[in-house]
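PaaI family thioesterase
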Amino acid sequence: MTPVMDAASLNSLMAEIFPQVAADFRVERVASMEADVRLLVGDAHLRPGGTVSGPSMFALADLAMYAVLLAMIGPVALAVTTNASIDFMRKPEAGRDLIGRARLHKLGKVLAVGDVLITNDGAEAVLARSSMTYAIPPER
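Predicted structure tokens:
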């Protein structure tokens, strides 16, 4: 299945519909049923001890799944998360961006199911794994 939106169009859409967080994230790669999103880690994302906070990592997972879904179905801004879980497995390295690699396993008419693996930029060790389900609104 060929994506209908590329990384540039997704970044533009995010800036339009989520200006409050768009500067923190960048869609870097889109492929069939896959997308990579970068969290541009800054001071606002850190918790005591100098590591990236859990809420920031969850935001990356959620935005990465949203990006891969919209890449496949187009700019359906009202698609929403209906279920999410995240396993935090390792502490992120300080001073490095995080990459969320999202993959859709099922893309139906009303639901999309996938997962996101989060790593430090340039590293292979998985820091967190998220399983997510999105609801797709009916066509109007």
